[in-house]
Write a structure and sequence with these properties.
This protein is mainly α and 139 residues long. Helices cover 80% and strands 0% of the residues. It is globular and about 55 Å long. The chain has five helices and no strands. It is a multi-pass membrane protein.
């Protein structure tokens, strides 16, 4: 019985590490898509990210500031309705995405063609979600 508990604890630990590695990689891919394709070509994404892009454009403040501030109400709702582990993972993702957008900001855009920027930026922002939902799952 004790052996099964150790194995179960080890599986949960591995699952947690994989989850946060996936979130970290996903924020890098998403930040690259935003700062290398969408933002320089004045293309907005949907949801909080799109509102953050507009706020950054209008105010001149960094995108990461708006990503963090505009997600606070959703963190509160998530804590109330989903739970603490969801909020911790969300905070990790928001902080990483905000940080990576600052890292990619000084890099010149990859393309100046709006159509290509929309295609590649949209794909890069969605590719990691497919990876997260289909790959690296524990059996």
């Amino acid at each position: 019985m004790l052996e099964n508990q150790k194995l179960s604890h080890k599986r949960r630990y591995i699952h947690c590490i994989r989850k946060y590695v996936q979130l970290f990689i996903g924020t890098i891919i998403t930040a690259a898509g935003l700062e290398l394709f969408l933002v320089p070509n004045n293309i907005i994404d949907g949801g909080v990210v799109g509102i953050s892009i507009m706020g950054s454009y209008l105010s001149g403040l960094p995108l990461g500031v708006f990503l963090t501030v505009l997600n606070i109400p959703f963190l509160c709702l998530g804590y109330r309705h989903i739970g603490k582990s969801f909020v911790i993972a969300s905070i990790f993702s928001i902080v990483c995405l905000s940080g990576w957008t600052s890292v990619f900001l000084p890099i010149k855009e990859v393309t100046e063609t709006p159509f290509l920027a929309a295609v590649f930026g949209g794909y890069s922002n969605r590719a990691w979600r497919r990876l997260y939902n289909q790959e690296w799952r524990l059996p």
